[in-house]
Structures are given as structure tokens and as C-alpha cells.
Amino acid sequence: MAAALPLSPVSHQLCRISNRFWYNAMTPRFCSPVSSPCYIGVKGIGSSSQLRARHPLISSAASTDYLLHDVGATVAVLSGAYALVLLFESLTKRDVIPQRLSRKLVHILSGLLFALSWPIFSASTEARYFAAFVPLVNGLRLVVNGLSVSPNSTLIQSVTREGRPEELLKGPLFYVLALLVAAVFFWRDSPTGMISLAMMCGGDGIADIMGRKYGSYKIPYNPRKSLAGSISMFIFGFFISIGLLYYYSSLGYLHMNWETTFTRVAIVSLVATLVESLPITDQIDDNVSVPLATILAAYLSFGY
Ligand SMILES: C/C(=C\COP(=O)(O)O)CCC[C@H](C)CCC[C@H](C)CCCC(C)C
Ligand SMILES: Nc1ccn([C@@H]2O[C@H](COP(=O)(O)OP(=O)(O)O)[C@@H](O)[C@H]2O)c(=O)n1
């Protein structure tokens, strides 16, 4: 961790005003959210426990800042998730879009918007668990409705194929578990988790839409899937992965070697696409096989 330099009183005040939210969320290498003089460090500021170790006077001040920040971010993302499902249920009910397309758009948007929301959480090492709380709550919601304890037609209409509650316990549940794994085990300082979401949400989601529309040429070893669907998954999954890596690099969370990153992402996208094309859907859901294959390939390719 590079030595930090105290700022002038004016700069300190400006930093205090802004760092409550934006700095420790959007530019983690800058100000630390503390009541004492703001510091500009060259590298990330680390967790609240690291701050307390370096600055005993900080103690609970930073922790309280982080806690309030992460609780607010969690409430915001939970609200976004609820609103997204409600929006598509409304569009389906009013016949603006067909139910099948609505479900696929929820499939594509939920996970990608979740991955894009990670920077609004604090710089604390515990922030990932607050973010993971969102898929956890949605997973519990899926289980409660899937077991028809209290069936919520909005959810069932928005994320099932045939409107049967028990469908919630398969693809959708595996889907939110994949989001939880990406947040907890990989988070915003690893390319692996975000690429797995890009392939599962963006790639696999687009494969369904393009495959149904243009998929006349079927894959020889799997007549239920088409070349158009798989090619779409590879292309969209690749570019969405690159987009997420660029987004997190520009915010200072990742430092990619772009000379090799494009090739590495292309290889990972190819692996994920090949796995998705296999005739194994009856044995293992795509929302398990695609993220697992992507995580394995990305971790071997990037090393973290
Ligand atoms: C329809 C879904 C999965 C079905 O997959 P498949 O069977 O078609 O392969 C997606 C289910 C989404 C879930 C109900 C809501 C998940 C919300 C997410 C955890 C957080 C999104 C936050 C963001 C800010 C909107
Ligand atoms: N590689 C692919 C993937 C899906 N698809 C089309 O999308 C439909 C749904 O795909 P899927 O069984 O993977 O659906 P999900 O499990 O992703 O919801 C398939 O029945 C195909 O018509 C395709 O043509 N090619």
C-alpha cells in the first residue's frame, strides 16, 4: 500500500463531501471515507479493518460509513431487482411483448445489471456480502413461490416458461445462485466472476432469442440447438465480457493486459459456447453448466 499524503483543509473538505459515496465506491484508489484528513493513495485503501490498523483514530467511524453505505446500496439494488421483474410482468400482461421474450430479457438484464451495480457498494472487504444478499433474497423468493407457499403470479409470469410455480426451482434458482457465487467468490477485482455472468446472462440469453428466430441450421450433435444460437452466444458473450472488463478497469478495480485479454476472453467464450451447445440440458441446467465452464476456463486463463 503506497504512503498516503494528507490534503490541505479545503481539499480535505471537498474530499469528505464526495467520498461518502462516490470516492469509496467509484474510485477506490482515492479518498478513504474517514473523518480524519482525506488521503490520496496510489493504490486501493483496503478494508475498514486495514484502515483501523493504520489509523487507530478511525476505529468505528469508517466502519459506520461503510455499513451505512452498503445497506443503502443493498436496498437500492434489491429495489431495482423487484422493479425489473414487475416491469416485464406488466409488459407481458399488456401484451406489449410475448411472455417468452419477456423471460429472456429478464434473464439477460438481471445478471448484467447486477454485475454493473457492484461499484455502488463500498470499498470494504465485506461489501461483496451485501451485494450477494440481493441474489440470496431473490433465491429465497423463488423457493417460497416455487413451493407455492405463497405463489406470486408476477414472479411466475415473468420468469417461467409455462407459468408453473415449480419451474422457479430450476433455471431461475440456479441463475440467482450463479450471481451469488460470482459476487462472493470473485467480486469486482477478478475478471472470472464477471465473465461468467456475461456468458450466462448475455451469451446464453441471446442464444435463445437468436436461435429461435434464425436457428434453421441445427447443430449436428444437438438438434435442439442451432449454429445461429451458438454463434450469437459466442459473439455477444465475448463483447459483453470485454465491456464489463473495460468498465471495471476504467473504475480502477481491474488492471488488464489488453494485449492478451482479448484472446483470453475469446477462448473462454468459445469454451462456454461449446458447453452450452452440448445435449446435456436434461442432465444439467445451462445456468449451472455455462457459469461453471466459464469460471473454470476464465480462472485457468487469467489466474484469478
Ligand atoms: C428468467 C431468469 C432465469 C431463467 O433462466 P433460463 O431458465 O431461461 O435459463 C432470471 C430470474 C431473475 C430473478 C427472478 C431476479 C434476479 C435479480 C438479481 C439477483 C438482481 C438484479 C439487480 C438489478 C439491479 C436489476
Ligand atoms: N445455442 C442455442 C441455444 C438456444 N437455442 C434456441 O433457444 C431455445 C431455448 O434454448 P435453451 O434450452 O438453452 O433455453 P434456456 O435453458 O437457456 O432457457 C432452444 O430450444 C433453441 O430453439 C438455439 O437455437 N441455439
Q: Which word captures the global form?
A: globular
The structure class reads mainly alpha
Largest sheet report: 2 strands, antiparallel
- DSSP summary: helix tally: 11
Gyration radius from CA atoms, angstroms: 21 Å
Beta-strand proportion: under 5%
Helix content: 55-70%
Written account of the structure:
The protein is mainly α and 304 residues long. A two-stranded antiparallel ribbon has the order 1-2. The protein has a two-stranded antiparallel sheet with strand order 3-4. The protein has helices at residues 9-26, 48-54, 60-93, 99-117, 127-146, 153-159, 171-185, 191-214, 227-250, 258-277, 286-302, and strands spanning 5-6, 39-40, 218-219, 222-226. Residues 1-5 and 20-45 have low confidence and may be disordered. 67% of the residues lie in helices and 4% in strands. The chain binds the ligand C/C(=C\COP(=O)(O)O)CCC[C@H](C)CCC[C@H](C)CCCC(C)C and cytidine-5'-diphosphate. Cytidine-5'-diphosphate (CDP) binds at residues 171, 204, 207-208, 211-212, 215, 224-226, 229-230, 233, 276-277, 281, 286.
Layout of helices and strands:
Blueprint: E1 5-6, H1 9-26, E2 39-40, H2 48-54, H3 60-93, H4 99-117, H5 127-146, H6 153-159, H7 171-185, H8 191-214, E3 218-219, E4 222-226, H9 227-250, H10 258-277, H11 286-302
The structure holds the ligand C/C(=C\COP(=O)(O)O)CCC[C@H](C)CCC[C@H](C)CCCC(C)C and cytidine-5'-diphosphate.
Jot down its keywords.
304 residues, mainly alpha, 2 domains, two-stranded antiparallel sheet, 11 helices, 67% helix, 4% strand, disordered N terminus, binds ligand LRRJ3J73, binds cytidine-5'-diphosphate, phytol kinase activity
